[in-house]
Amino acid sequence: MRKLVFLITAGLFLSGTNVFASDIDNIKPVSNSYELGTQYLKTDQYTKAIAEFKKALRVNPQDNSSKIQLTNAYLARAAYYNNKLCDYKNSANDLRAALFYMKYYDINAADAQTLTNIKITEGNLSSILSAINADTSSKGHFEAGRALRSQGEFAAAVTEFQASQTDKKYRKDSLIALGEIYYILNLNQQAANYLERALYDDSQNPDTHLKLARVYEKMGNTDKAAKEYSFALSKSAENQDILQSLENIWKQKIYNEPNNSEAHANLGAIYQKKGNVAAALEEYKTAERLNPSSVVTRLNLGTLFQQEKQYEMAIEAYDSILKLYPNYMLAYYYKAQSLKALGMQDAAIQNYKLALNLDPDNKNVQDELFELYKKDMSPEEMLKYLYNEVQNFPNDAGKTYEYAYQLHKNNKLDDAIIYYKKSIQLDSKNPNAYINLALAYKQKSRLQNAIDTLSTAKTKFPDNAQIKQQYALLEEEADSLLYSNASKLFSQKKYKEALDLYKKITPQTVETLTAQGACCQMLNSNKSAITAYTKALEMDSKNADIMYYLAQAYANDDNNSQAMVYVKKSLDIKPENPDAKELLKYLNDDYRNGMLTDAVAFYEKKEYSKAFPLLEKVLLLNPNEATAYYYCALIYDEQKKYWPAIESYQKALKADPKMNIALYSIAVDYDYLARYNEAVTYYKKYTAAVSAENEYTKYAKTRLKELKAYDTAKK
């Protein structure tokens, strides 16, 4: 007679079989990692299998066998998490990862079977996300992708970013994230595709160009890499990593093409930026020898001389360009700078104007020309001139900022504040606008506005030393406001900023340390939270609330034993704390469920001597755990101890009257014991309770016919 094993579920079921129909034994191994992964997968060691198949794919990203088996391992583990552990979060993550390898790993279109598998997996994932009330909006997908990526779950993160990139609001950041992850996974063509798409939305972003340059370089496409590196360098400071990458590219180019004048000129430009004047000059001379008419080489020579303050030689180089190309704007521009450095103001203004005629929208030329003009202006003339400029160019952040600055200098603070704010609206990347706006607020005795302005600036420019200095000065004047400001930031969910403020309060108190712990917890930095709470508890060793917070932090850090210690201490002092009671219940439940899961695993391996003590411990913690009684009964059945088994089934039924399979099992055991009257009674109870037809109801009905003579109810 067959027995049914009761599964611990929550209404969601995934197939425990692999979606792919391939037989593990028939796939040709491609590496030691593949073979080892296959053995782990055969023995249901899913996590180890996943690790090995990932190793195989890192060695050879085109290894289709490892990709298929990795997908299978994720699907199998997802089913295990769902069906055995009721761990829906990890089950969902594994389904996301499986979808990545089925749907997003390859560039080529999927075949019909894979499309079917994708549809099944997406349906299972959708069911789980619905059951756990996950946020499936574009924002929810994007935030989930960021969280998964931070946890190193790159495959699962891709599935979320693929969903969020369809929304214009999250498209650019999602595409950049996808490019970065594919780069990490050594899937460079896909990485390039996504980063290129990101540049459609923001073509001037130097960071994206830099990321794309590194992908191109990894792919061996040095020409494209050099172009992207150069763009990134033009939009940022003298980044030494970029300079070194470009130096390597141009050196390799020269090695392959020794007479390439452009490559020599470009290498010279890199040396110039790195401050190696002699090497730069040598490369420029070589480039000029190979191509005497090169404008690029002459321009670079001019900038080199200008950099070395040899302005006459720089002007000579720029004039040689203008003889050949009278409309070459950069030659006029750099010549104007050299003339300005020599104190020849009128000549410099003339060349700035010539440059501006050729490129009227060039902001650098406009600004430098204005600097020359303003030296001879009175404050009133300056304000009038700038006001007209702002009216003529209302979207020019630089002109708006300069007008605000001059208003500030002339103590017109209300107007200065208005125009500083306008300049920030036009360009939020100017740290000086924030600093001066804060100073104007301070001069108007609007200290809180000043602090808020610099708080925003600190978030935008975390490495700006001047912002930090000004903020510190304001803190000295408004130390009493720090705690309330930090509390406000915390309520706005700006936990990092709140933490920064709490840490600045001196001396530290129980309240500030406790607040720091709360911030760290919200930032998922549980170890830091534990440190802060521990320090607070050292100051106030009888504080039940801090003990509870510390227990919570330990629980979040998966240290349940320490969490149990502190939550019990908290309840000893404050026994009616409902939150502490709930946490204690959770810890007990978690401990009990873990033992129950281990016991079921031992039972399935037929290691009854290991399973039974765990089940007894579970029942000691919760005498109403029906599943534990049920598995105790199953073990008794395996040992042919039918009377103890019946007793355990009865207890399972008492704990869970809806556990109908226990009715069937009691009937079968009475049948074994030839106690046919009792067997008939329980077969009838089982068939009455279970309306759906299955092999057990069929068997029960058959036995009822065979045991008709023992049916006392019919006599």
Helix and strand topology:
Blueprint (H helix, E strand, L loop, with lengths): L31 H11 L3 H14 L4 H22 L2 H17 L7 H20 L6 H13 L3 H11 L3 H17 L3 H14 L4 H14 L2 H13 L5 H17 L4 H13 L3 H14 L4 H13 L3 H14 L4 H13 L3 H14 L4 H12 L4 H14 L4 H13 L3 H14 L4 H13 L3 H14 L4 H13 L4 H10 L3 H10 L5 H13 L3 H14 L4 H13 L3 H14 L4 H27 L3 H14 L4 H13 L3 H14 L4 H13 L3 H14 L5 H12 L9
Helix pairs in contact: 1-2, 1-3, 2-3, 3-4, 4-5, 4-7, 6-7, 6-8, 7-8, 8-9, 8-10, 9-10, 10-11, 11-12, 12-13, 13-14, 13-15, 14-15, 15-16, 15-17, 16-17, 17-18, 18-19, 20-21, 21-22, 22-23, 23-24, 24-25, 26-27, 27-28, 28-29, 28-30, 29-30, 30-31, 30-32, 31-32, 32-33, 32-34, 33-34, 34-35, ...
Highlighted features:
single chain, 715 residues, mainly alpha, 38 helices, elongated
Describe this structure in words.
The structure is a single chain. By secondary structure, the chain is mostly helical. Helices cover 75% and strands 0% of the residues. The protein contains 38 helices and no strands. The protein has helices spanning 32-42, 46-59, 64-85, 88-104, 112-131, 138-150, 154-164, 168-184, 188-201, 206-219, 222-234, 240-256, 261-273, 277-290, 295-307, 311-324, 329-341, 345-358, 363-374, 379-392, 397-409, 413-426, 431-443, 447-460, 465-477, 482-491, 495-504, 510-522, 526-539, 544-556, 560-573, 578-604, 608-621, 626-638, 642-655, 660-672, 676-689, 695-706. The longest helix has 27 residues, at 578-604. It starts with 31 loop residues before the first helix and ends in a 9-residue tail after the last helix.
